[in-house]
Amino acid sequence: QSYCHRLQHDMYFLISTSRLNEQVVDKIVLQLNRVYPQILTNEEAEKFRNPKASLHTRLSDLLKHLQKKGDRHCQEFYRALQINAEQLFNDLPSRKILKTPDPTEIDTDKEQYMLNDRGPVFFLACFSVAAGLALFWYCCNSETQVIGRARRILGFSPIIIGGHVRNICMLYLEDMSRN
User: Fold this and answer.
1) Model confidence pLDDT, tens digit, residues 76-89
2) Is the residue at 68 inside a domain?
3) In a domain, 141, yes or no
4) How many domains does the chain have?
5) What is the span of the domain harbouring residue 51?
6) Is 150 domain-assigned?
7) What is the sign of the dihedral through the CA atoms of 145, 151, 160 and 163?
8) Which residues contact 42 (CB under 8 A, 6 or more apart)?
9) What is the model's pTM?
10) Which of 43, 116, 168, 174 is the 20 to 30 Å CA partner of 11?
11) How do residues 102-147 score in pLDDT, each as one tens digit?
């Protein structure tokens, strides 16, 4: 996309709601007047820096003038805008279009959201299933010496969630191991 087309696309954004103030517009005009090759002549620079005309009028005339001059002039305007108002330059609609990601590229922020959108209940359910399977494997393993009654209590403990259940199970196991 040529710089003239980009400037035409960004023109309303730049002119609307006074995004550029007097000082920034003056700096841009001076930079366009002083760069090599000279984009604005001294007379044109004075015309676009005239404090008698409104900022809105001067800015719209400057942008139209640059579009008539060609792509190189519009490119220098963007360079001057980037130097003097970088935040505004980054917020331009044409810059946002250029920054759109490749449709085949994976958006990691979106992917992270898609993986985490199930919530805490899903996590607790998965964790309970995993803990239950681990406990089941531990209790059914023939090498472990777990008492029959403790096996029943430990089998149902993942269903009942709470700190007091864990304490009761631990006390029961200690009591059974002493006997």
Assistant:
1) 999 999 999 999 99
2) yes
3) no
4) 1
5) 3-97
6) no
7) negative
8) 33
9) 0.54
10) 43
11) 554 544 444 444 445 577 777 788 888 888 777 777 766 655 555 5
